[in-house]
Amino acid sequence: MVTTLKESRGDKWFLVSTYIYLCLALIVVVYPLIYILSASISSPQDVNSGAMWLFPKNLTLDGYKLVFENPKIWNGYMNTIIYTALGTLLNLAVTLPASYALSRSDFVGRQLFMGFILFTMFFSGGLVPSYLLIKNLGLINSMGALILPVAASVWNIVVARTFFQSTIPKELQEAAHIDGCTNLRLFIRIILPLSAPIVAVMALFYGVGHWNSYFPSLIYLNDESKYPLQMVLRQILVLQEMSAETTGAAINGEVAMAMNSKAETASLIKYGVIVVSTLPIIAVYPFLQRYFVQGVMIGSVKG
Amino acid sequence: MKGKRQLTAVSGNHLKNKSLGKRIWQNWELYLFMAPALLYFLVFHYGPMYGIQIAFKNFIPSKGITGSPWVGFEHFERFFNSYYFWDLLWNTFSISFYELAIGFPLPIILALAFNEVRNGPFKKTVQTVTYAPHFISVVVMAGMIITFLSPSTGMIVRFIELLGMEPAAFLTDPAWFKTVYVLSGVWQSTGWGTIIYLAALSGVDPQLHEAAIVDGASRFKRMLHINLPTIVPTITIMLILNMGNILGLGFEKILLLQNSLNMEASDVISTYVYRAGLVNAQYSFSTAVGLFNSVVNVILLVTVNKIAKRTSENSLW
């Protein structure tokens, strides 16, 4: 910021209230996160009675033991890792070459292609026609249904294109062409090595998307052994809880049995499972924050 | 220097003098680069658009999309005349506008506040922490909402009791659904939403501030009259994008938070399409409802864009 000569009284008050506002925002966001972390290692009686309100009380690791002993969660974890890895690779393979091509001003027809892609951002066939398409392609209950329909995102293509346009000097490409370098060689040998930041940003954006996705698996998978983590979480966090607390209807499954016999164990599982499923992202996030932010900013340069 | 000029002259020439065919041939590999993406959009985005025709047909799976008989606007009429039509429309619009009214200005205010504070560990911490909830999956988010609002043991419910108030049945009382939905969204995405405005704020010309300081403008005045106007174009673009998506709102979260007791307030067009189409297999009917949804979205987007263009010269296209 600009250094002022001397701050007036009003300015000081304004700054103080800004700090107070930011502190409030910090507390509001961080409190639930700490609470979950503490609750996952505290005795469930203390959590449910309200005795545990910030720091863990009567430490116990039973919650995590139950989570890690649950074969469904393990299986979901494995599936999610596979879907995320393969899905992200496919995303990169589709997104990067296309965005590079679209960034080249000497690429005849790029406006046409861009329009073709952008149109899908504003108009879509809708849920049922998409479902019928996946069904007709024979992808129901397969990994293909989870990764092929999201092989690229318009927004990410635009972001990557903007990056290529703004950071790769045109002269570099011209020089390479004069030297007789083909576009393929140019892209693999020169452009990609210079574009590590955007490759990282794209991998992160797509990767988080795959990790957190649940709806495609809800509609396209019917074999529980193929469920990704989010579907298992939905069973534990949303379905069981809702049926137990709001309707009182009969519930099934091993988790539900644990809930009926020991309501406390269930609450332990809930907090443990939230931590275990979110931790991989939250743990790496501070280190990757720079890239994420960069990605959003690149995208914001040209709407 | 001379070498460089020659180089650009050469490349300039070879672009100008070559015919369209040659220019295409020269970059044939770029079409190869484009091919997977084009194929993907053609199959998975334009493919379903072909399927939209079943909204005007009575889709019979065994006969396929082309073989099913045409029925015109029958499904649309059925939807418009159904007793839940107005409820769905009201819920969809009211949740959207509620979200827009609360959730849209907050990131702007937070970004302006971030911008006032000196760069340091405090600012970094607040930013890192407020961005974080963005990475929580919608399922975990719904799980957190349900757990925290649980009538007997929920953290928020106990907190309200502590304040000496009577907590509401947040998830089972239709009157509360929209507030729960909107406020949880604010918690999750306000911090992340600041990034785009911070990027815009970094473009503020420091000379403007210097001049204003000389003129004796207070910090608050400078924020209001220098920082805020600088980001107005970004605000406009974000508003247009948000408006274009007004009927496609947080479908996944609503679906997860929906239960038989709050249905009256939580059922929106997209959840209805899911239920009618995929759960009850009324393919044609729910495609018609979905098409209605998409068309309204496009109309909204185009209209808002036009208004923005006329009033502020900032628009998407």
UniProtKB/TrEMBL annotation, chain A:
The keyword Transport applies. CDD domains: TM_PBP2. GO terms for cellular component: plasma membrane. Residues 77-280 form the ABC transmembrane type-1 domain. The keyword Membrane applies. Keywords: Cell membrane, Membrane, Transmembrane, Transmembrane helix, Transport. It is a multi-pass membrane protein. It is found in: Cell membrane. The chain crosses the membrane at residues 12-37, 81-100, 112-134, 146-164, 186-208, 268-288. Belongs to the binding-protein-dependent transport system permease family. This is Sugar ABC transporter permease. The lineage of its organism: Bacteria, Bacillati, Bacillota, Bacilli, Bacillales.
TrEMBL record, chain B:
The keyword Transmembrane helix applies. It is found in: Cell membrane. Its main location: membrane. One of its GO terms (cellular component) is plasma membrane. Keywords: Cell membrane, Membrane, Transmembrane, Transmembrane helix, Transport. SUPFAM superfamilies: MetI-like. The keyword Transport applies. It holds the Pfam family BPD_transp_1. This is Sugar ABC transporter permease. It comes from Paenibacillus donghaensis.
